[in-house]
């Protein structure tokens, strides 16, 4: 069943649609009906429908404003506009917003059923294309040439010089990259509800290809370069002429869309790491390493997420480091705060040294390399001057007489550094949340303030910001903004003689009626009752 919202400020219209249409029979589940666009956006924080059927002319937020907001945050939701306005300008706006259908009222029950049949056929076809694994398996044989994939992999993993990049782009018929670029890396969490037969290794490859097929469709539409690495990760190279904040915002939206479609149609999940922006194709390995580092935080934050390195670590500055696989595992475990994994790595490292029967000098050299990797990891996370890092001296290794003593010391040293990293990360996140709260308390009077405005101000993706903002404040962005506005309104009602519509405008509500409704919901009484009560208390 596809979920549907109905939006119309006339209750009789909503009731008519509910009564005259057998939604279940048409293949739809009517999960909500609303009087205006604002109510819809608030409801979508908990339930995201597949289809929204909306009138244009409504109070507080009209149908086209609602469509713009939904397309920006939920690009996969189909929107159908029902209107009594036969105006070419409205139709033009609907086309620009990628509205699925623009239907003139009045519409009969028969016409509505036909419209629903059409929409369901379109969505069924999309679902069928994504679920038809046998079709996807045949397409697997005709995927992009291996040479092109390996070139793109070398470009982001090892890096290439500008002349070779230009030559290879021309050879493969690729459009030169725009000045601002970044890399996104998608990794399958697990295969969820899909049943994988142990006797058929092709099953997992088909599912992996199905996920990559979703990314390819989005990449073709958005002008991205997709490829798969030999480690079974899926990579998107994104380039744009836009300024950096717009680049990140666009990248987060694309990543969220890919994550949603894979979960919806393939019934398993991926996590997607977003690297930092770079200004030339030669610097793409830096963005790729950022994206891999962001993916490491899946251990902390959970599966099925879009993770940006800027959300978590701010703006790291990496050197050209060449680590062994063991060093990379240690760095990953240190970053994600998994001390149990770190302890196991250290124990394994020491056990390998013991088993090697190597002389003292080579053992000390290997241990010093571990310390250098630890220091580099801490510096990448902005801890160059912390006390724990300054106390690490390479010559300290020489004062121990046994590997067992060094193992204990290594665990204590790494534990101390990880504690400092956790404190620094919490400080960074708390600083960004405070910055967001200050922005809200300064700009609460702006009627059009949105979650995207806040995220652009603090340079965070909407999904990660919503998660940490609720964790630190106990409220969603909408709840926090509404509370601030209501508190300011209460102050004005108590200490000024301004009219109610003036107060509504001062706290960000252009519609006084909507302000009164919200105020009563928040304070338990109307603005007039609140003012009268406090006036009586002052004169009592």
Summarize the structure.
This protein is α/β, with parallel strands linked by helices and 540 residues long. The chain has helices at 11-20, 23-26, 37-43, 63-73, 88-96, 109-131, 133-140, 146-157, 162-171, 202-222, 244-266, 284-296, 298-301, 309-313, 325-336, 339-356, 360-380, 387-390, 403-443, 451-458, 462-473, 477-495, 500-506, 512-523, 527-539; strands spanning 2-7, 28-34, 51-55, 78-83, 101-104, 180-190, 225-228, 234-240, 269-274, 306-308. The strands form two sheets. A five-stranded parallel sheet has the order 2-1-3-4-5, with helices on both faces.
How are the elements arranged and paired?
Blueprint: E1 2-7, H1 11-20, H2 23-26, E2 28-34, H3 37-43, E3 51-55, H4 63-73, E4 78-83, H5 88-96, E5 101-104, H6 109-131, H7 133-140, H8 146-157, H9 162-171, E6 180-190, H10 202-222, E7 225-228, E8 234-240, H11 244-266, E9 269-274, H12 284-296, H13 298-301, E10 306-308, H14 309-313, H15 325-336, H16 339-356, H17 360-380, H18 387-390, H19 403-443, H20 451-458, H21 462-473, H22 477-495, H23 500-506, H24 512-523, H25 527-539
Parallel strand pairs: 1-2, 1-3, 3-4, 4-5, 9-10
Antiparallel strand pairs: 6-8, 6-9, 7-8
If you had to describe this structure to a student in words, what would you say it looks like?
With 540 residues, the protein is α/β, with parallel strands linked by helices. The protein is 61% helix and 11% strand. The strands form two sheets. Strands 2-1-3-4-5 form a five-stranded parallel β-sheet, sandwiched between helices. A five-stranded mixed β-sheet has the order 7-8-6-9-10, with helices on both faces. Strand 7 (225-228) and strand 8 (234-240) form a beta hairpin. Helix 10 packs antiparallel against helix 11. The termini are far apart.
């Amino acid at each position: 069943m596809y979920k549907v919202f109905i939006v119309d400020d006339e209750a009789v219209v909503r009731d008519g649609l509910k009564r005259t249409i057998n939604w279940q029979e048409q293949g739809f589940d009517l999960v909500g009906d609303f009087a205006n666009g604002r109510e819809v956006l608030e409801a979508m924080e908990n339930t995201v429908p597949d289809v929204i059927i909306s009138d244009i002319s409504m109070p507080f937020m009209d149908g086209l404003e609602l469509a713009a907001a939904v397309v920006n945050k939920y690009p996969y939701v189909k929107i159908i506009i029902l209107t009594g306005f036969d105006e070419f300008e409205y139709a033009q706006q609907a086309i620009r917003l990628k509205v699925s259908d623009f239907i003139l009222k009045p519409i009969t029950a028969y016409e509505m059923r036909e419209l629903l049949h059409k929409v369901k056929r379109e969505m069924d076809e999309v679902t069928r294309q994504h679920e038809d694994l046998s079709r996807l398996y045949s397409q697997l044989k005709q995927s992009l040439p291996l040479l092109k994939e390996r070139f793109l992999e070398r470009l982001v993993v090892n890096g290439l010089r500008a002349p070779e990049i230009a030559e290879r782009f021309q050879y493969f018929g690729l459009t030169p990259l725009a000045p601002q670029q970044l890399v996104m890396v998608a990794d399958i969490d697990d295969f969820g509800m899909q049943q994988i037969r142990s006797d058929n290794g092709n099953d997992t490859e088909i599912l992996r290809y199905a996920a990559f097929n979703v990314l390819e469709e989005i990449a073709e539409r958005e002008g991205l370069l997709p490829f798969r690495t030999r480690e079974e990760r899926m990579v998107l190279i994104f380039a744009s002429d836009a300024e950096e904040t717009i680049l990140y915002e666009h990248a987060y939206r694309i990543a969220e869309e890919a994550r949603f479609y894979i979960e919806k149609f393939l019934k398993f999940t991926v996590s997607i790491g977003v690297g930092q922006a770079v200004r030339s194709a030669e610097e793409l390995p830096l963005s790729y390493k950022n994206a891999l580092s962001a993916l490491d935080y899946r251990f902390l934050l959970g599966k099925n997420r879009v993770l940006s390195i800027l959300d978590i670590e701010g703006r790291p500055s990496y050197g050209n480091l060449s680590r062994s696989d063991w060093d990379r595992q240690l760095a990953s475990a240190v970053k994600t705060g998994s001390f149990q994994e770190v302890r196991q790595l250290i124990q394994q490292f020491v056990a390998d040294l013991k088993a090697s029967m190597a002389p003292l000098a080579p053992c000390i050299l290997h241990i010093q390399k571990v310390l250098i990797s630890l220091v580099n990891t801490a510096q990448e996370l902005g801890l160059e001057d912390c006390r724990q890092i300054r106390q690490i001296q390479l010559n300290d290794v020489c004062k121990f007489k046994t590997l067992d003593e060094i193992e204990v010391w290594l665990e204590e040293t790494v534990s101390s550094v990880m504690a400092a990293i956790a404190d620094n990360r919490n400080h960074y996140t708390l600083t960004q949340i405070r910055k967001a709260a200050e922005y809200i308390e300064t700009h609460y009077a702006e009627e059009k303030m949105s979650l995207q405005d806040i995220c652009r101000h603090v340079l965070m993706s909407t999904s990660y910001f919503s998660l940490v903002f609720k964790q630190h404040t106990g409220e969603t962005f909408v709840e926090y903004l509404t509370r601030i506005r209501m508190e300011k309104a209460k102050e004005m009602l108590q200490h000024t003689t301004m009219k109610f519509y003036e107060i509504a405008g001062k706290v960000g509500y252009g519609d006084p009626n909507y302000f009164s409704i919200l105020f009563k919901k928040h304070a338990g009484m109307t603005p007039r009752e609140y003012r009268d009560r406090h006036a009586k208390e002052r004169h009592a």
